[in-house]
Amino acid sequence: MTVDRRQFVLTSGKYLIMTGAATRAFEHVMAGTPEAAPEYSVFDHWWAMAIDVELCIGCGGCVRACKQENGVSLEPFFFRTWVERYHVPEGDIEHPMVDSPNGGFDGFPERYRAGDGSKDFFVPKLCNHCAHSPCVQVCPVGATFESPDGVVLVDKDYCLGCRYCVQACPYGCRYIDPKTHSVDKCSLCYHRITKGLTTACCEVCPTGARTLGDLKDPSDPIHEFLRTNMVQVLKPQMATGAKVYYAALDGSVR
Amino acid sequence: MDSLLAMVEGFMYPNEIELQWSVLIVLYPYITGLVAGAFILASLERVFNVEAVKPTYRLSLLTAFAFLIVAPLPLQLHLGHPERSFQMYLTPKTDSAMAMFGFVYLWYLMGVLLLEIWLDYRRDIVLKARSSTGFVRDFYRVLALGSDNISARSLEIDERLGRFVTIIGIPSAFLLHGYVGFIFGSIKANPWWSTPLMPVVFIFSAMVSGIALVMLLYMVVSWLRNKEIDMACLDTIARYLLYAFIIDFSLEMLDLIHRMYEADESFKSLDFMVKTRLFTSQILMQIIFGTLLPLGLLVLTQITRLTVAARKNLYAIAGVLTLIGIFAMRWNVVIGGQLFSKSFLGYTVYKMDFATREGLLPAIILMVAPFFILWGLILILPPWWGEEEEEEAPTSLPG
Questions:
Q1: CB contact B103 to A (< 8 Å)
Q2: Are the Cβ atoms of B81 and A159 closer than 8 angstroms?
Q3: pTM for the whole thing?
């Protein structure tokens, strides 16, 4: 077969373009790959968090640790985790008074006095790493996704910044990072847990109110937590498959 | 931004205090609604043989086209990473409502609107190319896409194909705007948005706004051209505006009554919001001045015998009020849906900037731009091309 110059240029040109396109496509595929951790297999884990409301003292250590660990903006509008204080007048769980000054970053100034029949408690909040995430569902390009080990992650280099996921999250866990203009949220310290560490918030919690758990690990204490406590997730009516389990969660919490 | 904190009432989740979707996202459903509405008015003549609205047929199509060109711009401007928006075409996530926007948009633009305009104008473009010289001739030759055949047979094919495109176009227009409604209506996290009525309400409000816009444009264009307004046409358009408005208003009231009667966990929060922070835009602008008043004026023109001048004035006032009312409706959906906390325990405010990327200035520019585009389109493709020719030379067509 003879190949004239015209044919040669056309054919080799096509191959060049295809190779380039394939490389670009492969980069995009690889962009969603979890951070390299040779010992870690995504299929051996199913991450969740256990929170005991009665143990939280509202010190805000988790909020500070999270912001430091993950480089979250210190402005009071951006939180991967935050703590809410509930003040529930006696018997009126429909009208709690809630505050979260700077997300609990600086702790909570004393505000309520005991003895009027009301009750006060703290509720730490974070992404619920839902198994059926409404935020993942709406992302137009798949920049946010559920990893096989049960963590909802964001590919910052792929996110359009359309904010549809922020609207879709029933729990208010997402925000637009003022530095990257991409969406950001709790990653369950994925860079730590894939290396055998716990999350920054759990690491610093002085009372053990929050603990990371691996539901696929039969020896993980989370199993006992779920068995021995009455547990609840936030907004169960949303049917999102939330995996942050609360013990002693009051009906006033939303 | 810190001043926002002082304006929060009750409790918002910390990440909720700053609004995510700005006035630009208000423009998006407003503009696509005008597109869909204008197109549906055009199709009245084409598909349902409502001959009376014929004088506005081409004007409606050009209006729809002018607004459709601008429709994606507010979205593009709003994105945190506009340079990545093309990913929606390359790697769309099929179960995301928003991912389909690009495809629905492209289909409507290329598959429906451009095709219909071209088919309808082809004969006139060819005639213009034939009777011109130099650059003008070349320009219209390009617009004709090389076609030069305007025999009776080819025009008949144009007509049949055009009708077919319009028939496909009606569900497409419904899809374009119903889909925008679905984007909001399918968000279960937000009770202000989450209702299956949302796409239907969006479609009917789109028809209302599109019809009102074309009605006003027809009056303005006739005045600018110093031509008599065809009152049979104007009366018919106003009647259709009234019909669409009655359905739209009924649906919105159904939604409201349903919410009030059900009074679920979100109701107190939403009720409070409507009575305070949304009072001006919802109760005054949308319902009283933007709906009840124009509805009343339109009903008045139907049940009384008014002079031509009086009818024109009432139609003009009703049209302007309608456009304001539908804008307020979009505002209340988009902005209102973000003013309350998903904890139902508090409220934030929307502070609109002026000369920033998502401020008032770009919003005004984006809202004015379609009118300039329409002006350009009218210069290139005058909707009254055929009319003048028929008046001047009622002879058989060349070709």
A1: no
A2: yes
A3: 0.91
